[in-house]
Amino acid sequence: QLSKRLQRLTSYIPSHAKTLSDIGSDHAYLPCYAYQKGLINRAIAGEVNEGPFQSALRTVQSLGLEKAISVRLGDGLAVIDRGETDVVVIAGMGGSLIRKILDEGSHKLTRETTLILQPNVASDTVREWLSSNGWTITNEDIIEEDGHIYEMLISSQTAQPVNLSEIECLMGPFLLQKQDKIFAKKWAIELQKVKNILKSLDKTEQTEEILQKKQQFNKKAALIERGLHWDN
Ligand code: SAM
């Protein structure tokens, strides 16, 4: 049984997609499921680490999917040729690693590529990268599973890229509009964390550095409060 998070990610595979690459695939559960459900005709499971690479091979072999799913060992997008796949999934890692993989391998992506990204933390750095590199976020989702909240970003290169504002980078342009109750829960928790940090900063000596940090966190708290009462 595929996790709710991985299943939800596969629901964003465009209907015209034929080939998918799952970068950092670990057990290759997502590409195997997508193939078995007929969502794609072929897939590449990329892994940089030997252990997960072997796990991916085992899953593919045990399901007899060797012809449809190619398991490749390599760093990020280095495992695919330019334009080889319609969809690239990068899920279950931190936002800065996803950003690095996109940045280092952006020459492998084309105007036809759909990105399905699921940063575990720091989605804002992924949105910043997309926004400043000609990519448009076309949809977003947020789910909760086993006590974790996961954000999902779908993106492609549109004729007129949409630049994101600071609050959109932080909280997500679609998630702000949707105002899902999981979104409200996530940001209420984040706001509390920021307020706790501000309280502890108040208790230390008010040096120039501390004052600057307080300014940054006050700004973040104000953005979050605005996002939690979004009406435009
Ligand atoms: N994508 C799966 C998911 O969402 O459940 C697995 C996530 S797992 C936590 C992250 C995987 O990414 C690990 O198996 C790790 O080896 C792999 N990984 C980390 N950096 C990578 C890179 N630069 N290129 C390819 N794979 C990478």
From TrEMBL:
It comes from the Bacteria. InterPro entries: SAM-dependent_MTases_sf (IPR029063), TrmK (IPR006901). Gene3D superfamilies: 1.10.287.1890, Vaccinia Virus protein VP39. SUPFAM superfamilies: S-adenosyl-L-methionine-dependent methyltransferases (SSF53335). It holds the Pfam family TrmK. This is tRNA (Adenine(22)-N(1))-methyltransferase. It comes from Scopulibacillus cellulosilyticus.
